[in-house]
Write a structure and sequence with these properties.
alpha/beta; two-stranded antiparallel ribbon; 12 strands; elongated
């Protein structure tokens, strides 16, 4: 029988790291992580817009059941991101307006549901970050079982309690706790490089010679190459 677990989180990325990562596009962070990690294209922002960033407070719930999500909202600290693995099932909504309002009042940084939400009209007009795989009017059950602050996986992206969760309009990403400092440095460098490229584009001096170099590797020689 699956063990019901409600654990205390023993680590979390620092507030300074959260703030630094929040200023970098998720795509740039993903690139320096070798494009190997993603929360899946179905997890989309349901709120009006804005960045999600904070330490993961993980929940594993039975599809269509939100008992352990209620408990997580009660336990989580301000700045936490509640990340729920509800199996990706969208038959029943896991959260709606009332739970989002409660989480927002507590200072929780956002909620990720690998499952469905409801009350989209209200959530979509608000700034509180909510990511989900779908929408349905059908409400949840509250019977369990579930787990809190254990390892979960969203579409192959493993999330440990205290890892960094970042999200923007492009989707979600988990930055492992032990690698966050290094990844921040690489992502900051990538961000600065892209700023330089944008300046080159705007000043009509972008170097695109690399395109023909790559084509030559494939055996193609441009007619413009002389």
């Amino acid at each position: 029988m699956v063990e019901i677990k409600i654990c205390q989180r023993t680590r979390a990325v620092s507030a300074a790291l959260v703030k630094s990562f929040a200023a970098i596009p998720v795509a740039n962070i993903s690139d320096v992580m070798q494009r190997l990690t993603a929360g899946g294209p179905s997890l989309r922002p349901m709120h009006a817009g804005g960045v999600l960033a904070g330490p993961a407070f993980t929940v594993k719930s039975r599809p269509g059941d939100n008992l352990f999500v209620h408990k997580a909202i009660d336990m989580a600290a301000p700045g936490d991101v509640i990340v729920v693995d509800a199996g990706g099932d969208t038959t029943n909504a896991i959260i709606g307006e009332l739970m989002v309002r409660t989480a927002s009042r507590k200072g929780i940084a956002g909620i990720v549901i690998n499952g469905a939400i409801r009350d989209l009209d209200t959530i979509s007009q608000g700034a509180f970050p909510v990511y989900a795989a779908g929408v349905t009017h059908r409400g949840p059950y509250k019977n369990g079982p579930g787990q809190i602050n254990t390892a979960i996986s969203l579409d192959g992206m493993v999330i440990e309690p205290g890892d960094l969760i970042v999200g923007d309009a492009d989707g979600l990403l988990c930055v492992p706790y032990a690698e966050a400092e290094d990844i921040l440095k690489w992502a900051s460098d990538k961000n600065a490089l892209e700023a330089d490229i944008i300046r080159d584009i705007d000043n009509d001096r972008l170097d695109i010679s690399w395109i023909d170099v790559e084509l030559a590797k494939l055996g193609f020689v441009s007619k413009d190459a002389g």
